[in-house]
Predict the structure of AcetylCholine Receptor.
Amino acid sequence: MGKKSPIEVHFSMELYQIISVNEPQQFLMLNAWVVERWTDRLLGWDPEKFGNVTEIMLPHHFIWLPDTTLYNSLVMKDDENRRLLHAKVTTLGEGNGAFIELLYPTIYKLSCLLNLRFFPFDVQSCRLLFGSWTFDNTKIDYFAFNESQAIGTTNCIENEGWNVLSTSVIRHENKYDCCPNNYTLLEFRLTIQRKPLYYIINLIIPTSIITFISIIGFFSTSSINEPREEKITLGITTLLSMSILIFMVSDKMPSTSSFIPLIGLFYTSMILLISFSTICSSVVIYVQKQGNLGNPPSKNFMNIARAVNRFIRMEMPLIMKQAYAQKAREEKLRRQQMGRKQSLWTRVYKLAREQALRKDVQTSQNSSKFNEVLTPEKLIDNGGKRCTINKDVTCISDSGIVAMGVPTLASEDDDQDVSLLELETTPTPAMQRPTRLHKASTCGSFDSMMFRQIEVPVSPRTARNLAEIEYDWLAALLERIFLITFLFIFVLTSIGINLIGFFYWWMAPDTVRV
């Protein structure tokens, strides 16, 4: 070994196979063929003296070998890394040394810091550091045999999970604290790209289908009064299936807290989506159950619901239209009946006013007459003149005036109770002189009847049925709103997250070439 110039070792490697990429333990295992070339000045002979033999094969333990070491190897025994057989020795002439080529197969298990941020659309770049462990660059100096093609891939067997994108080599001279001189290292870079089809077919698509079907199942509009409690069971079952899929993915992921992988973000969003869907389904069930109480929703709330319904174009169910039609018929019938009663009392009121005016005229002429107000109990038979409405009507006779209050409403179909007063049109002696109506019992009662707001009650059974139908329609409307909302979020998360990873995966070859 010369003292002035170091031995120059030219190193080359041909990749044969990528055996495995272990994501949890962060290492790469590959099979490669390595060739080391150097000149040994102590070897060499004159071919003419040995029958013109210029090249021989010698066992590796008969010659000096450089202690080439893979710095980031996970295997410490050299016998487990490489298999040394024979060296090819070519003479350069007597006194000039010999050129040695050492070819050997290797299986390297090396540490590789994997960046799984975009898993399963990730691209990994692993480095292999080769150099002498004992000798610095004043004794052994390393060079790449072919810098343009650092690691050959001509004979590489295609891997089912990875594609080789590019290789590169950089020569470093490192200074360590232990030693005064620099050490030469060859840094080989192997850039590989994952094939994501396996994960798309077996993980991403099933998860997306499960989530999509769950959302449809959660918020599919049920028929009227159909129970929705089984949707909670659907949510729990879906979460259980998602946990099983996450367990499958966890075996592929490293235990790191420095970042969230893309697939972890995808599964987290799907789980949150299903969880919130289950909660919203519970809200829908709660709204539906409010109809069992019989209290209808407020008019403002129903107006808001109808306004929202115009945007989502959800058709009102037929049974709800029938219920509204039934309510309208009942209200119309009651208004007609109460309108007839109102006309009756208007006519009675006018009749009483005419009698009062007639009384004022006659009072000036016959001031000696005495006006007496009789109670309704006294007027049972008023000279053959009877009132056919209620007992609180006003009858006028010779003997006095009977004061009548506001009549109570009769039954809906009782037309006899709402007929006009059967009063004789021919005046009798008993009715020669009209008397004064009692203000408190007649005029005041009629005035209050005239200006009182008419309320049209609906039967309790109809109101209860309508409340159930309205709350069930509100529940269906909420389901439609939640369906649109969660489908939008599902498309945004599932497709959006995976599109980000796919874009990174698609652009990776161009980025590596640049």
The chain has a mean pLDDT of 77. Residues 200-317+463-513 form one domain. The CA atoms of residues 215 and 376 lie 72 Å apart.
